[in-house]
Amino acid sequence: MKPTLLVLAAGMGSRYGTLKQLDGVGPSGETIMDYSIYDAVRAGFGKVVFVIRRDFEKDFNEKILSKYKGVVDVATVFQSLDCLPAGYSVPEGREKPWGTNHAILVAKDAVNTPFAVINADDFYGKESFEILAKALISLEGKKNDYCMVGYRLGNTLSESGTVSRGVCHTDNNGCLSTVEEHYEIHRKDGQVIFKNQTTGEFNSIDENLPVSMNMWGFTPDYFVHSESDFKVFLDGCNGNLKAEYGIPTMVNKLIQTKTATIKVLDTPCKWFGVTYKEDRPMVVSKIESLVAAGVYPKKLF
User: Fold this and answer.
1) Cα-flanking dihedrals φ and ψ of residue 76, to 5°?
2) In whole angstroms, what is the distance from residue 221 CA to residue 291 CA?
3) Domains along the sequence of the chain with CATH
4) What pTM did the predictor assign?
5) What are the residues facing 51 on neighbouring strands?
6) Model confidence pLDDT, tens digit, residues 196-248
7) Could you tell me where the beta strands, DSSP code E, fall in 87-201?
8) Integer-rounded Cα radius of gyration of the chain
């Protein structure tokens, strides 16, 4: 069976000021997400499942889903605070979403093949989808054998400011062992540097180190692990109304308990995305360059 693409699109993009998932940045009004779907389909993905919020379902259906008719099988699932296991209820005063791994969990009934997970508002690149699709196809019928696409740090830097990145450390088999957060990363005088949180000084760092940009590959048994661990997470919130059940939380636990392995896949692609409104012209320019180079047609769908 062909792998499934799970697109996390429930965020509002508060810093950006609008639903950036629906913002057209391509020459024919394409969204960043459209390029991901286009790349995924030509890489061999057979289904796309979108995790959205019910309050923008109408706009999403009209502006996004309508494009894909006849292109790929699509489905939507809804992430909401009350999507909880039996016996649990939303704590009084809780407004913040439960996090990215909760977003994966709400899609468990819509996915029955090896699947990829991406953010809706990140541009990942053609080769990344090809690499991930090949890995997922090889995982058919397996369990506890996962993967992630590791971007080279230097290919994820911002032109408009510093960034924070989770630097991935691997074992001798190329599997993820730990993720170490680095802050205020930027390029200066030909070197990539970051701020050492202990000394306050800026130190150089290898720009080819792999970092996580939230492009994961799992098999359906991941839902079983997540469903069980989500209850543990909820029991341990202890009144914290902002606690989040993120993908790194689940992945780290699986690694530490030796329940699963996460193969880190190298990609040559440059990642880019829109965090602030000021980033939009850069994204538009990069996509224009890719269209001019023949990587994408002027109109995707």
Assistant:
1) -125, 145
2) 38
3) 4-152+211-292 (3.90.550.10)
4) 0.93
5) 8, 77
6) 999 999 999 999 999 999 999 999 999 999 999 999 999 999 889 999 999 99
7) 115-119, 122-123, 145-152, 163-170, 176-188, 191-195
8) 19
